[in-house]
Specification:
Blueprint: H1 16-22, E1 25-31, H2 34-49, E2 57-58, E3 69-70, H3 72-84, E4 115-122
Parallel strand pairs: 2-3
Antiparallel strand pairs: 1-4
Length: 123
């Protein structure tokens, strides 16, 4: 997203150079199904980039379905869920996992089926 990490702030668009300035150690994951990945990307752009949720407010809330607020990893999860029909269960989720009561972290994608580590970048 990133949203400056401050509840109530708006998302911001930053360059790739600014990203690596802020996050010099970055892991890159890819979803195994390129068609679904493209659908998720298109959804993210259409809804969060230029669409009705482009000005969504940054706030971490425990409901992955809710689009009143969003945060970085939730935006990715929602794009795969709403845009491509992919339901990813976070690593930290227990047996009785419910998306309506879950906070997802960037590292939760490391154990979701279909997401594969492509590489790491250290600037």
């Amino acid at each position: 997203m990133p949203g400056k990490g401050i509840a109530g702030s708006k998302r911001e668009i930053i360059s790739i150079g600014e990203w690596f300035s802020r996050y010099p150690s970055t892991q890159i994951y890819r979803y195994y199904d390129s068609d679904k990945a493209a659908k998720a990307g298109a959804y993210a752009y259409d809804v969060f980039g230029i669409g009705k949720l482009k000005d969504i407010t940054y706030r971490i809330t425990p409901n992955l379905y809710d689009q009143t607020y969003s945060y970085c990893s939730e935006l990715v999860w929602q794009s795969y869920y709403y845009g491509a029909g992919v339901i990813g269960k976070p690593c930290s989720a227990g047996f009785t996992w419910q998306p309506a009561t879950t906070i997802i972290t960037p590292y939760d994608f490391t154990c979701m089926p279909g997401f594969n580590l492509m590489g790491s970048i250290n600037w």
